# Entry
Amino acid sequence: MIDGHGDDLYRYNGIRMNFSTNIFADTTETTDRLEEFLRTRLSVVRSYPEPTAHSLEQMIAQEYGIADDEVMVTSGATDAIYLIAQTFRHYGSCHILQPTFNEYADACRTFGLQEQPNGALAWVCNPNNPTGEVRSPEEMRRLAAKHRMLIVDQSYEDYTLETLWQPNETVRTDNIILLHSMTKRYGVPGLRLGFITAKADIIALLRAQYRPWAVNALALEAGKWLVRNGKPGIANLPEYLHETERLRQCLSAIRGIEAYPTQTNFFLCRIEQATAHELKEYLAFHHGMLIRDASNFVGLTPHHFRLAAQTPEKNDALLNAIHLFLCSVSDGSAVTPPIQKTMP
# Structure
């Protein structure tokens, strides 16, 4: 597991606005109802869960119009990433479209897959973290033709209006695996629920490597409830993406800040006058705001950071705080943090 995951809220006290996580935070209706439901199901912890989460897989398969054996539920999308690397470790090599989520490279290293330009096991994040770029289905076909197996991580599929590769296409394709995240869809990162869609023979290979009882009983109950009753975490996606673009353009108008185009709710930025770490610490200590220092993404620099848009009011507060930081840098004023970290 990488040190420096984006949502490191646990490292700080006093954070009021979290721009670091890509999961839209203001999604209380569904989560409040889910909490009420789970209070009535606490007794399930007294027994073992289903060994393979089959009941939830059936519901997901019905939702997408595919067969039960073309779906596999995992304990979050990251769990699926390591499972795939383990299952296809005999391929020997991998190719990762960088910059992107670091867990693909970590999983490949764990199971001895060597990164090469034309590696057999190719990984693409779509929409891509941290850039917000979306690749078309046509690009997926071209990538799949170049590699033995293509893994497309669509964890942020509910955070874009662009056309993406669909599960009903995947199950007719010999060498594409799709990753999905219920964490992102419903705004419930603590549950650790994800799933894979692929041809049945690929799912069978993955299932043969997977440990029993990997998804706990409460998570299964939550997952089934969410499929039946949940609403996607972002109620009005077009409006939210419009606000994202407003924030990006306002940042681009600030001298010394470059905010790159995006097709989702988060985007990459670059600051000239300081490092991303310095900006992050200032915002956390002085304004209770958390951003993502993106310097540990392959191919990026200490000046890159990532933001996920929040409400207009929070976004305006962030813009004002960044202005204040740049003023403090230009006049050389001292920074004394009033908010203390919880960890070194």
